[in-house]
From TrEMBL:
A motif (PP-loop motif) lies at residues 57-62. Residues 51-217 form the tRNA(Ile)-lysidine/2-thiocytidine synthase N-terminal domain. The keyword Membrane does not apply. Its EC number is 2.8.1.-. This is tRNA-cytidine(32) 2-sulfurtransferase. It comes from Massilia phyllostachyos. Pathway: tRNA modification. The lineage of its organism: Bacteria, Pseudomonadati, Pseudomonadota, Betaproteobacteria, Burkholderiales. The gene is ttcA. [4Fe-4S] cluster binds at C132, C135, C223.
Amino acid sequence: MSEADLDQLNPDAQAKKLEKIAYENNKLHKRLCRQVGQAIGDFNMIEDGDKVMVCLSGGKDSYALLDILMTLRERAPIHFDIVAVNLDQKQPNFPADILPAYLEKLGVPFHIENQDTYSIVKRLIPEGKTTCSLCSRLRRGILYRVADELGCNKIALGHHRDDILETFFLNMFFGGKLKGMPAKLVSDDGKHMVIRPLAYVKEADTERYAQVKGFPIIPCDLCGSQENLQRKQIKAMLRDWEKKHPGRVENVFSSLSTVVPSHLQDRDLFGFVDLKTDGVPNPLGDIAFDEEPCSTPAPNTISLTQL
């Protein structure tokens, strides 16, 4: 509800509406804290004595990540430090003063790394082509170096549940592989631990939380004009599913944590070639007539147990 709409209400109605808004905002904060705390616990993301580098882009997700981690740090039974890091890529019209001012007001240690990756990307990528891949590789290398310089043993990224699902489908549709974006993984140089504490959080919640908290959002002018990215197509597909088939997206996300290698076809993951019968019952073995997960028996269906 806008301020103009609120002004149209009488004082009692205004008070009730404001009370309801405050209640819903508090519920959102509690939900985010619970989901982030659960993800941290499930994957043992943060341990006593860790120094966590929170990568702050100026977008809604990284702001939410920093905010929730600071809240949880105050409640945690362990001690860990937080350092907020922003990579200023020298994009045109980038408001370089916004993040330092915000972080100083917040009272959190921070570091601004100045690297002109914008010019590199623009020089190497033809006009109209996707810049995300090169931009991501350049950022990653710089952030690994900064983590070493700051003595951080964990690198926290603001990827949420929807990012993870989108990556999964991108790899499936366009890469021909079952590969997602894990909540915790050692970096490709083998020296850093990358964590994603927002792994259980929906993007819709970070969007609303950003509005509630009034985060000073900084748009990415480098790639913001690229409207035909494959990721945006996947995002639209997931949102359409969520609207037309409630629960489908949640089931897909749950499936990422419930993998049955024997029922896929990766010969490196499961020993199909050397598989032998041993006469020992196996609950994960093949059933001659598998029941469809969501099937509804037809009216005249005869159960196998009745035969």
